[in-house]
Specification:
- The chain contains 4 helices and 16 strands.
- It is of the alpha+beta class and 232 residues long.
- The longest helix has 14 residues.
Length: 232
């Protein structure tokens, strides 16, 4: 693990350059305006890593409607990451239970057309009873590969994070805490020896604290990057 992490550290300068280029590639999208309430909804759009594209939110359905987003994209797993590898890794950090409810993200690799990926993600508790709560993540990549690839990032996937409470039965059901769930995943993986860059890149999805139905918004607008090196 120490040798792999040393190699990752040597790539930080490359990663920084990639992220600067990504910011410059956001054509025609203002980057300074914060997210607002549903009546004047969020900026949701593709981030473009030299033709590798994903959204800064996931969606309630296969429609890129900024009034129908679920959670802000808040984590990037990179270096040697595909969906199965990341999920099996996070199993070791308390996220062993699968979720039944999928959300959606359009993703694109190179010259191929954009496709929708769907994921139910995994939780600490599969379906929290009344009085219980659980952290929950979902991750996305093109279904044909289960990863995206960029020379500066290696193989990578992106994801969203949040908390669920009171789902079984749904009495007083609530969803909240995307920022805290992001940082808890980072805490656990960093304690496990993984290289973590907290709040590394501005994804232009800042969310002020507010309650909309059973959904409580709060997000810094910056995604955390977690390196998952090849286990060998």
């Amino acid at each position: 693990m120490s040798e792999a992490l040393g190699g990752i550290r040597s790539r930080v300068a490359v990663l920084t350059a990639v992220l600067v280029a990504v910011t410059a590639a956001l054509v025609g999208v203002p980057s300074s305006n914060p997210a607002t309430a549903a009546t004047s909804r969020i900026q949701c759009y593709y981030f473009d890593f030299d033709g590798i594209q994903f959204h800064n939110y996931d969606y309630l359905d296969k429609v890129s409607d900024c009034n129908a987003v679920d959670w802000a994209t808040s984590v990037v797993f990179w270096d040697w990451a595909d969906i199965d590898f990341v999920k099996s890794t996070l199993d070791d950090f308390g996220f062993e239970d699968s979720s039944w409810q999928d959300m959606y993200m359009p993703v694109r690799t190179g010259n191929t057309a954009a496709v929708w990926d769907d994921d139910g993600g995994k939780k600490e508790i599969a379906c929290p009873a009344v009085g219980l709560e659980t952290r929950h993540y979902r991750i996305y990549a093109p279904p044909s590969t289960d990863y995206m690839y960029h020379p500066g990032l290696g193989y990578f996937v992106v994801g969203s994070t949040h908390w669920d409470a009171n789902e079984c039965p749904p009495i007083g059901k609530r969803h909240y805490g995307s920022e805290e769930a992001e940082q808890t995943i980072a805490d656990r993986m960093e304690a496990g020896g993984y290289w973590v860059d907290r709040e590394w890149s501005d994804f232009d999805n800042w969310e002020p604290y507010r309650v909309e139905g059973d959904h409580t918004w709060e997000n810094s607008g910056y995604a955390t990057y977690i390196a998952t090196p090849y286990p060998g």
